[in-house]
Structures are given as C-alpha cells and as structure tokens.
Design brief:
The chain is an alpha+beta fold. 33% of the residues lie in helices and 15% in strands.
Length: 201
Amino acid sequence: MHKAAVTEYPVHELIRNRWSPRAFSDRPVEPAVLASLFEAARWAASSFNDQPWAYLVASRDDKENFAKMLGVLVEGNQKWAKDAPVLALSVARKHFHHTGKPNPVAVHDVGAANAQLTAEATSRGLLVHQMAGFSHEKARLAFGIPEGWDPVSAIAIGYPGDPQILPEDFRKSELAPRTRKPIREFVMSGSWGHTAPFAAK
C-alpha cells in the first residue's frame, strides 16, 4: 500500500513515502537486507561519536525469540505486530563509554539511528512502525538487558501488506489520510511563539 505524504514544501521522496503501517506482508525480509538496515543505523550521528545504541532483533522464522519479542508488546500492538516478519527493540546506553558520565542525549541518538534505519528500509520498499507501547520491564527480563541500558522503542519491519487483514479499528486508521500540523506552528524565530518568517505560509 502506497501512502505518500502531501507536503507543504518539497521534500525527498524517502520522506514522503515513509509512514508507519500496521498491515505487513508475510514476505520475509532477507538477511542481507536486514544487515543493510542496521548498517544504516550504525552510521547515524551521535554525541562524541559514542554510538549509544543496541538492537535486539527477531524474525518470524526464529519462533522462540519472535514470541518473546511479541510478548513484551502491549496487547493492542500484539494484535497486528504478530504478522510483521521482523520485530526489534532499540536500546540506549545511559552513560558515555569514554567517561562513564550520564549521556543526556542517548535516547536522541538512538532515535537518530532508528531514523536512518527507517530511511534505508523505505528506500528498499520496506516499511517500519516504531512503538512506545511495550513493557520496559518485560523487555529487560525477557532479553537480559543489563543495568545501564534502557529500552527505547519496539520496531516492526516488513513489506507492505493488505489493510483488509487488520481488525476494523486498525483498518480505519490504516486507510485514513495522513496529517501533520503545519510547520508554522512549531518553527519559531526570535522568541517562543513567534513563527519564523520562512515558515509563515
């Protein structure tokens, strides 16, 4: 399913075509393709080049780990994520590797890595849906995530599927038009609440 964004200003097609579906095809994601997605994440920018990210990944053909991954999701996400060919968790190291001091931007940097993973996926005809709806404690226990590391997001990865496979409430969301608030509402200049001139359209 193609669902390109209708933008106010021109942007790259990878950005227009990126969205977060719930309907995935049962087509497997090839190991070499998966490796390229995480290679893209590897080259994200990070504070002090600290690279505070790690990923736990499970494909559907790895039934035991896929079941563990599915089990950490909230029930609403389990209903559709069970059909994704790949599930993952992104995890952030809370302290800088080189100093041991707290890293206040670790989650930001993991988000940047996730964004690059998503762009690479989009370029290959894959779609990514990141989720906040999962139990951090279940994830920590299920996968032995050590102290000093925090789960950030759950991630479903796969090729686009048919929205008709979804329960009705999810199907409506899947088919609804994509919307975003205009940039004039959040891009400011000079003082808070003052729209930047270039964004005042």
